[in-house]
Amino acid sequence: MNTRRKKLPVVLEPEEVEKLLSIPNKRYITGLRNKAILATMTNMGLRVSEVVKLRPGDINLTKRNLRVVNGKGGVDRDITIPINTAEALREWKKAKPKNSKYFFTTIKNKNQGNRFDSSQGSQLSVRYIQFMVKRYAKKAGIDKDITPHTLRHTFATSFIRQGQNVMKLK
Q: What is the pTM for the complete model shown?
């Protein structure tokens, strides 16, 4: 018989979420992207692997709908985009590389006077997002071991606290 108890997952309190989402500097294109990524993971519960695979056609900001294609277990699912997340996604969409295959991309900063060439970017890595989440949590003064999956647990906890059925999240 297994006598080890499972640890409860680390979750962020609402004020910690607010702090975390306030850290990316929206004066920079990377800040717009990173804020949109954090908002998507925290407010919609996406897995980091799902975030890096998002394509521009998967997100309909007019209908506030996001389609996860081939998520865990090969399942597609549609998720309503919360208003605050839609705004972050809209700001990133305006600034992002236009001809990119993926929605969240790297930024190729080829300086051309006051402009940079953002015609395309490459897919972000899972590792980059893991590092970015940890860096922003530290900057926000959050003294917990935060990972992208922590943001998913935070979303699920909030979902349950609102009386929603957690099985809808699977």
A: 0.88
